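From the thread on structure requests for the teaching lab: each student submitted one protein with a one-line request. Submission from student K.M.:

"Model ABC transporter substrate-binding protein from Lutimaribacter marinistellae, tokens only."
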Amino acid sequence: MTGFTRRGALGLMGGAASLPMLGTPALANTKLTVGALRFTSHAASFVAFERGYFTDEGLDVEFRFFEAAQPMAVAIASGDADYAVTAITGGLISLAEKGATKVIGGALSEEKGIDGQMILASNAAYEAGLTSPAQLDGKTFAVTQPGSSFHYMGSKIAGAEGASVSFKPLQKVGAIIGAMKSGQVDAWSIVPHIAKALAGAGAVQTIGQVADYIPDYQVTTVFTSAENAANERAKSEAFLRAFSRGAADFNAALVDKTAGDEAAEDMVKLIHKYVYTDREYEKAAPSIRNGAMRINANAALNMGSVEDQLGWFKSEGLIKDEITTETLVDSSYVDTM
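Reply posted by the TA:
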């Protein structure tokens, strides 16, 4: 670090996340493209943008939206996006091995006592007896791509149950939803703002919780190009500070619910600008509230979970055995948990 640590700087924020930041004068109007999915789990970036936290840091941010995690990693490596939040995937790890990307923080996490990602069965599979993960043997499990977070979750769940499942890659979340509704695939796991909405509409059935199989799972990470991590420290630290302020606001409003009812309502309205934009607010609001999982304070990273994920990728032959956490993570930015 140069002159201070991010841990120390973010620690000063504590509960005073609303205090104005002085920013970095050298970064005035620095343009950034931030990759995101239209998920409640990406809310920290949306809050940082809408409440001016990026601007406070001298960052002029625009979003580029994706429909799956792996294409986002490719965009970071190619320079089509500067920072992003997504799950650890085989694609992200392979790009890190090539010296193209680095994880610099943590974002969404499974936490005991907070509704997290849910395991779903199609109605057809449920009626045929798939009423819990214990009946997954011989079933199909939807993933976007091989080596995606869906593949990791499905494999860990099936392994815990001693089940043999077939993974069906469908590329996009929207395609998976359609396949679940039509019974073309039997099972899937997804964040609660999607899972609860589908189950509540009777389109699928909830049969379990991911946290019961992967406790303290580091679902998503903050990452950037290796070039930014190594040579754009001021910019990367500024991004993380703004992102962390957004996460603090989100957690207070919708996870810990310490900010009050008005703040919660304001937060849901803010997120609705990006999530479920095709729905009227009254219909979108319950799903957004239902999707409120913990976003790690100060972008802290659960290294134990990262190591477990790397171990799984190796066991599946999806990455090389010599890849380590140092290959993937630039620990000079990271607060651990």
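TA comment: The chain has two domains: 6-111+218-328, 118-212. Residues 1-22 have pLDDT under 50 and may be disordered.
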